[in-house]
Design brief:
The chain is α+β, with helices and mostly antiparallel strands. The protein is built from 9 helices and 20 strands. It folds into 3 domains: 95 residues, RNA polymerase II/Efflux pump adaptor protein, barrel-sandwich hybrid domain (OB fold (Dihydrolipoamide Acetyltransferase, E2P), Beta Barrel), CATH 2.40.50.100; 99 residues, Dihydrolipoamide Transferase, CATH 4.10.320; 216 residues, Chloramphenicol acetyltransferase-like domain (Chloramphenicol Acetyltransferase, 2-Layer Sandwich).
Length: 452
């Protein structure tokens, strides 16, 4: 009996996934346990295995599609088996917009067009579209090619006797960027096509993208490279954050002498064997942030348009750089942990992200209540982090640099300062409250006490 394979739900917050690769195509045999397709959530990747032996009777989606969870992906059964009744009223995206189980045919008429007069001539089998060769083109293909400025003389037809059919024109359009009306007109007149992504909105090719390259010596001096699915998700999240919130950043420095002294003690304890966990500067900053959040509950919150959701516990998110892109895992109930426990949790979730084994729900922005992003190791002195909505704020941690400070009695000295950049949603927090919270983080850093 045929079996419908759905896209699994990975975590409570995951609503859709991106299909990275269809491993088994329609008509291919498959054994139980073989991988049917791979897919990605916001930050983690998975593979779906076949539950039975059989043949792929239907595949409803393609590589790169963003598919809602629990939607039908494939049907596995025996050749010729009727599976339509299994689908019920489920919404699926079948190839070429055909009904499930329908036979896909090219419904092109057999008559061709006279290239010179543009009239149908049922007696002619070809239409001469070029002085150098005879091109077989169906009427629908010719109409679409003229409308979209596609040069059919450069195509190899897939229809009967090599005829160019509508499907061949659609294949060209799938691999060509969209064009403005003026660009289409120029393309038809000049016989040129856009190369790579256009410079218009959403990659649309404009008329200027069709102009010949002025320097024939260097030719094309760039390469168009498709971005990864991970980068698409990150780009979408960043754009949504900036578009749907009122973000403002305050910068402040904190005296880092106390932290640097503690860091020296940690190194000595590690060497002596009395401490087994390496407590870093970042761990200390995050520990100070947690203490400040407990004193400013409005910052430890989500902004939900007409509602502020204030959390009793601190679920701290930490930005982690991986080969696949930026991930932001969450340590739940971070305010219950000691500095050693916090350091161990950070190391565990960071390793999970880099190895691809982190739980999807720990990567959801809704799971965290506040985020810390540290670029200090890269020598960054100041930056503007972007809020992980619906959270109301994010702290950027910068590098430590020496700055002059009044030590009293007219004595000045250069003191190490760590830069702190707080971006907050001005819809949720006023500038005064955000400034006081940032100052409280500095105070916690400068008076930090840890036990190990």
């Amino acid at each position: 009996m045929a079996v419908v394979v759905i896209l699994p739900k990975q975590g409570q917050s995951v609503e859709s996934c991106i299909i990275t690769e269809i491993k088994k195509k329609k008509g291919e045999s498959v054994k139980k346990g073989e991988v049917l397709f791979s897919y990605e959530t916001d930050k983690a990747s998975f593979e779906e295995e076949s539950p039975v032996d059989g043949v792929v009777l239907e595949c409803f989606h393609n590589d790169g599609d963003e598919v809602p969870v629990l939607l039908n992906m494939m049907v596995i059964g025996q050749p010729g088996e009727d599976y339509v009744a299994l689908l019920g009223d489920a919404v699926t995206a079948t190839p070429d917009n055909k009904e499930p189980g329908a036979k896909i045919q090219d419904a092109e008429p057999t008559a061709t067009l006279d290239a010179e007069h543009g009239t149908q001539n049922p007696e002619r089998q070809t239409s001469n579209l070029s002085n150098s060769s005879n091109i077989f083109v169906s009427p629908r293909a010719k109409n679409l090619a003229e409308k979209e400025a596609v040069e059919v003389t450069q195509l190899t037809g897939t229809g009967p006797k090599g005829r160019v059919i509508e499907k061949d024109i659609l294949a060209v359009l799938d691999n060509r960027p969209k064009m403005t009306p003026l660009a289409k007109q120029i393309a038809a007149q000049e016989g040129v096509q856009p190369q790579g992504t256009g410079s218009g909105l959403a990659g649309t090719a404009k008329s200027t993208d069709l102009l010949p390259i002025s320097n024939a010596v260097y030719g094309v001096d760039y390469e168009d490279k498709k971005i990864s699915n991970m980068r698409k998700l990150i780009a979408k999240a960043m754009h949504t954050s900036l578009q749907n919130s009122a973000q403002l950043t305050h910068h402040l420095g904190a005296d880092a002498r106390r932290m640097m002294e503690l860091r020296k003690k940690v190194k000595k304890a590690l060497e002596a064997g009395t401490l087994t966990t390496n407590i870093t500067i970042n761990d200390m900053v995050c520990f100070a942030v947690i203490r400040a959040l407990k004193k400013f509950p409005n910052v430890n919150s989500h902004f939900l348009n007409d509602t502020m959701r204030l959390f009793n516990k601190v679920h701290l998110a930490l930005a982690v750089d991986t080969e696949r892109g930026l991930m932001v895992p969450v340590v739940r109930n971070a305010d219950d942990l000691s500095i050693i426990g916090l350091a161990n949790q950070f190391k565990e979730i960071a390793n999970g992200c880099r190895k691809g084994g982190i739980a999807p729900e720990l990567l959801a922005a809704e799971t965290g209540t506040f985020t810390v992003s540290n670029l200090g190791n890269y020598g960054v002195e100041m930056f503007t982090p972007v809020i992980n909505l619906p959270q109301t704020a994010i702290l950027g941690v910068n590098t430590i640099i020496p700055r002059p400070k009044d030590l009293g009695d007219g004595v000045y000295a250069f003191v190490p300062y760590i830069g702190l950049s707080l971006t907050y949603d001005h819809r949720a927090l006023d500038g005064g409250e955000a400034t006081r919270f940032l100052k409280q983080i500095a105070i916690e850093i400068e008076t930090l006490e840890i036990e190990f």
